[in-house]
Write a structure and sequence with these properties.
Distance between the termini: 79 Å
Number of strands: 2
Radius of gyration: 32 Å
Order of helices and strands: HHHHEHHEHHHH
Number of domains: 2
Helix content: over 70%
Number of helices: 10
Strand order of the largest sheet: 1-2
CATH class of the largest domain: Mainly Alpha
Structural class: mainly alpha
Shape: elongated
Strand content: under 5%
């Protein structure tokens, strides 16, 4: 079985994988979830949360692209309970950095974390129901919106707290605004979080419905094929019986002719 590095090094996958690595993190997450949508039913939020954290680390690193340098990747791994000794980190980086450019994209990290191969990722996908794809896209959008609302509030609170610390007229005004924001933020945040969870649940339901529809269609096709084979066998048996009956009738007729002589 070819390794991930072998797959990326091949002409067949190199261009495809490079194109995916150039996409924004959320698009890489979308590609990953679409490729493994059935398997990750119930884990969509986990993947999207990881995506959000990866984007934060990218912003913190000052990266101009969509890949993390070694030091920041190490920090990211530690954040997600993947603390590694230096020797282990070197080995992990070799496995994660599939295009061997000493940087790591979110897609490379996902393949490493969930033990998937590039071949699995880029294999021809099943044609999924349009409603399922629409539900997945809506869930991603709702999750992004919920995260943005929460982070905007966090940023605003920090700004207001800094003004309060400075005191004076601006500090008093900021204190009043801060109290109002804290009072209403949980309602707004919770509403956004609920909308995100509802969208994720709809996606999971769509995956379930799609799987059931595929199973039903497969069963229907199986039964139709079995019926076709049964009909074909019955027709063949009838044809063979007719041939035997005809042969027996001919033999009986000949026997009768001999007896009559």
């Amino acid at each position: 079985m070819a390794s991930n590095h072998d797959a990326v090094a091949s002409d067949e996958y190199k261009a495809k994988f490079a194109e995916l690595n150039d996409k924004e993190c959320v698009e890489q997450a979308r590609v990953f979830l679409r490729a493994f949508i059935k398997e990750f039913q119930g884990k969509f939020q986990e993947v999207l949360d990881l995506c959000g954290h990866f984007e934060k680390k990218l912003a913190e690193s000052g990266s101009q692209g969509n890949e993390l340098e070694k030091a920041y990747l190490h920090q990211y791994l530690e954040t997600h309970d993947e603390t590694l000794a230096n020797v282990e980190l070197v080995d992990a980086l070799k496995k994660i950095d599939l295009n061997m450019n000493n940087k790591t994209s979110f897609l490379e990290y996902l393949l490493f974390r969930y033990k998937k191969t590039v071949v699995d990722l880029l294999a021809p996908m099943e044609e999924h129901d349009e409603d399922l794809m629409a539900a997945l896209n809506a869930a991603i959008a709702a999750h992004r919106s919920s995260t943005a609302v929460f982070e905007d509030h966090e940023t605003k609170i920090k700004e207001l707290e800094a003004l309060v610390e400075q005191g004076g007229v601006k500090g008093m005004k900021a204190k009043h605004e801060l109290a109002q924001l804290k009072e209403r933020r949980w309602t707004v945040d919770n509403r956004a979080a609920i909308q995100s969870k509802v969208a994720l649940k709809k996606t999971e339901k769509a995956v379930e419905d799609d799987s059931k529809a595929r199973e039903a269609a497969a069963q229907e096709n199986y039964e139709a094929e079995q019926q076709r084979l049964a009909d074909e066998k019955a027709a063949k048996d009838a044809e063979e019986k007719a041939a035997r009956d005809k042969k027996r009738a001919a033999m009986a007729e000949r026997a009768a002719m001999f007896e009559g002589k």
